[in-house]
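Hi,

I'm pasting everything inline rather than attaching a file, because the server keeps stripping attachments. The sequence lines come first, and each chain or strand is labelled.
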Amino acid sequence: MKRDPTPVSTKDRILDAAEALFADAGYDGVSLRQITSAAGVELALANYHFGPKSELFVAVVRRRAEEINRERMALLAALPDPPTVEGLVAAFARPFMEKSFRGGPGWKSYARLVAQIANSQRWTEAIMRTQFDPVAEAFIKGVKKALPGANLKDLYWGFHFMLGAMTMTFAETGRIDVLSKGRCKSSALDKIYARLVPFLAAGFRRLAEG
Amino acid sequence: MKRDPTPVSTKDRILDAAEALFADAGYDGVSLRQITSAAGVELALANYHFGPKSELFVAVVRRRAEEINRERMALLAALPDPPTVEGLVAAFARPFMEKSFRGGPGWKSYARLVAQIANSQRWTEAIMRTQFDPVAEAFIKGVKKALPGANLKDLYWGFHFMLGAMTMTFAETGRIDVLSKGRCKSSALDKIYARLVPFLAAGFRRLAEG
DNA sequence: GTCTATAGCTTGATAGAC
DNA sequence: GTCTATCAAGCTATAGAC
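And the predicted assembly:
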């Protein structure tokens, strides 16, 4: 019988601390000393468990990406055949929003990490291609069925625009709060969902019209 | 009579080098030594001309932002009254795309910088609020006239989605090239323009329908 | 305005005891 | 698996000569 119902291993303590700090300051804005200090472990343990700093960063992302990917794939697979564009966009957006809303602060950090990764060229190979592209391809496959008359290039571009809108929105930078003088709240993800899905679905439909 | 038609001052040499390096590696991923070395000037001159590193970063962004802002404002002001949504989105997108296409490599670097800034919380106060919000407000004002029946909150969110799509697109990360197996090219900004504007305009219209 | 030199500190990574 | 101690290199910023 375990004494602690949720014993947090050293590895997980490092991952949690790294996640929060990387999300706030970026890969180069955080030192391994800051991370291990926040995790309450010795500096040398970061290298022992994860190797170089870059591998730690990849491990931080992979932990959440695998969970999101599973849910997105399940939702995409559960859609009717042919699916609707709204259903596809929702299947892509919903797991992220649900977790960000109810999954704890780690998921908020992850959202900010994804925004950094998706907007730089640095992690294209090590993260985007291996972690993100498989789900992207499943989405494209679905939207091809939803809009059978559309040009394939249009659908790729539509996916790209969608990704840009979603990553910036999920990152909750607070910019729209300031710009709208408090009318809109970055953190009101349920209200955003009701706008994000129709906005993007309408964009896809317009592209499909040619 | 000037001997060199384009004498590049030390200040501009530093700005140019900083711009290119910051765009590739981010604020913390570049040292002042790398910047001054690439600029062919001494380390101490960076501090002499710009003060601390953070001020240099802001100066890099301001140089281009002021030019883009002038053009965007002029295009927005030249639209018919009431404007169309397509006209508004085009007035916002076109200056960036034109410069990225024909303005030289500095503008490509600037686009990648903007993507970093817009997706983080770090520069919200020092850059976003002072450099970017005035044009954003002019855009919102225009779209209110173009879609008079729309809810104001919907328009702010539409602007936010637009910003996410544009910044990631202009950053030209190359991700869509890989994902689409070469079918789409990040650098083909003229072909993107023909898709970006209708996609976003349709999204705004859909939000306005309620 | 430009240069050299350097202060004072932080970095990632590892060797070796336990 | 965890700890201490440390290395070699890098960092921003500045003082002071020219």
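Chain A touches chain B through 60 residues (CB under 8 Å).

If the labels don't parse on your end, tell me and I'll reformat.
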